[in-house]
Records
---
Amino acid sequence: MEFKPAKFCPGCGYPIALMLLAKAIEKAGLSKKAVIGLDIGCALLAWDHLPINTFQTHHGRVTSTMLGFKRAKPDSFCVAVTGDGGAYAIGLQNLLHAAKRDEPVFVLVINNTVYGMTGGQSAPTTLKNQKTDTHPEGNLDEPFFGPELLKNLVAAGAFLARTAVNEPKQMQEFFERAIAAQKAGHFSLLEILSFCPTNWRTRGAETIAYLESLKQAFKTGEV
Ligand SMILES: Cc1ncc(C[n+]2csc(CCOP(=O)(O)OP(=O)(O)O)c2C)c(N)n1
Ligand code: SF4
Ligand SMILES: [Mg+2]
């Protein structure tokens, strides 16, 4: 499996998650049937990174675009890749209804706790007291827990989970679970806590420590 050079910042978590996603798709024999939608945000930097067909969609509209594709081509494997802002702010309405209707799409949320592409503004996932460009004295709100919010909406058979880019085994297992959910006709959402050293203004080990600190607030595992 060949990947074109990534356009992400050095140390970004996106290419780690995307590489494991592509490998899980290949392992499941779905490389030809898979279609990946990329929301606006740093997800769009993956447009020619993977040897898998991709769509570029509008900000917050990747879930609805990919569920439309799935309805048109039911034998495809549809993935909607989005940032936390795209999923839980501008795209929340689309996401809630797709989950409630048990649409057979896989939503992959890369949660870096900020609006990464636009310069590190606060997002719904920004932690209380976290300093961002728009909250230099610290965010005032509690963060938003996407998979937990969907829990009471989804049908039996849907898959909801959270992991982190430095948990490759769990990521691999959850990709397999999400693929199985779509094969069985169900919705799935996996949130991956991900490095954004550019906007966190961290370097090296500091970046890993910051991701580890996020796990205190955002519990990993199946929801
Ligand atoms: C309708 C619309 N509103 C705002 C924007 C500007 N915009 C582009 S990316 C982005 C935020 C992306 O944040 P997130 O979804 O968390 O993705 P990340 O870049 O962090 O991976 C915003 C607000 C846009 N492109 N379209
Ligand atoms: S801004 Fe953050 S999320 Fe975007 S490419 Fe750079 S490190 Fe990755
Ligand atoms: Mg983000």
Note: The pocket of magnesium ion (ligand 3) is lined by residues 83-85, 112, 114-116, 123 (CB under 6 Å).
---
Amino acid sequence: MIYLNNAATSYPKPKKVQEAVMASFSGPLVHASRTGMERDEDDILYVCRSKLADLLNIEDPLHIIFTSGSTEALNLALKGLPLEGGNVVISAIEHNSVIRPLKTLEKEGKISVTIVECDKNGYIEPQQFAEAIRDDTKAIVVNHCSNVTGAVLDIAEIAKIAHSAGAYIVVDASQSAGAVPIDCKNWDIDLLAFTGHKSLYGMQGIGGLYIKDGIELKPLKVGGTGILSELLLQPEGFPIHYEAGTPNTPGIISLYAGLQFIFETGLENIIEHKKKLYKILFDELADNPDIEIYSPKNEHTSYSNFCFNIKGMVPEEVGYVLEASFDIWVRTGLHCAPLILPYLGVEPWGTVRASHSYFTTEEEIYKFVEAVKKITIIPKRK
Ligand SMILES: Cc1ncc(COP(=O)(O)O)c(C=O)c1O
């Protein structure tokens, strides 16, 4: 099998991750007194928070809250911020994990939502956010990297625009964490959501939210914390205020191993490898008149997604033939990002998305290219 669906979930996981998860089940996953909330170098929760802080340039690791993934992190951010009575600016490249919580708040009459258009590759100039801001805008919520085309936005500039209007900047880094550099401190990000099972190489069911110091945020859930049990209300402070319930320790162990893999390999080497594969895809397929490519050819990209259609075929047909005849796994359809469709000109069926990882080989990419070329010569409907 050639796996080109890493934007959904990465496969394979590094050996280190597989071994760490297996080893975690050979002993009890809790200590006699559960902590996880402190600066304890022997505690996997703190050790993992610290590695995440190194990768994302976050000053205080305790300001990283573990969640089940980006979806929960974004729900925590969007339902917890004081947005009521205001406007929220989002973009056309958002995932449903941003669109649906905000559209629900809009339906309840609590906020209004403004959508900034993208270009035909999913890119948006920072200035477009400045033009969308209104007097009552309370937040810009934006996807750092499109899970459809792989377009990467300039978060540092968008954050400046949000702050100059007195609004929060909330970033969905689901596709970018572990794939492109992120600098929470210097970009002055207020809240950043990430997921563990994509380019961070961890398991499904683990992710988190970075919360900048001084941000007013209500917790999404309250309950047991293992410590301070005498308090009848959720304890204050980071991360305990936001982390009720038993943590996903195997997930955190996997995430830490994934982060170790990234540091040992070097993010720049991971990017370089993907860039090389991306170039092969464009060199081989960009001039083919039967193929429409939606991913950016310029530098505004994660180099991870090759988003395309074959003229005369719906994406599902292409995906079916790739899998049934060539054993190549891609993702087809809307990719949980419905707002981008008209800008790419791909309504109503969406696109085919082939997403490679550090583990994808050049040979696999050439096999994919050959398969796509063969599919283009299948006789098409008129
Ligand atoms: C851009 C984007 N946002 C949010 C999510 C949701 O992540 P998770 O399903 O891990 O919560 C995804 C995952 O597909 C994504 O690509």
Note: The mean pLDDT is 96.
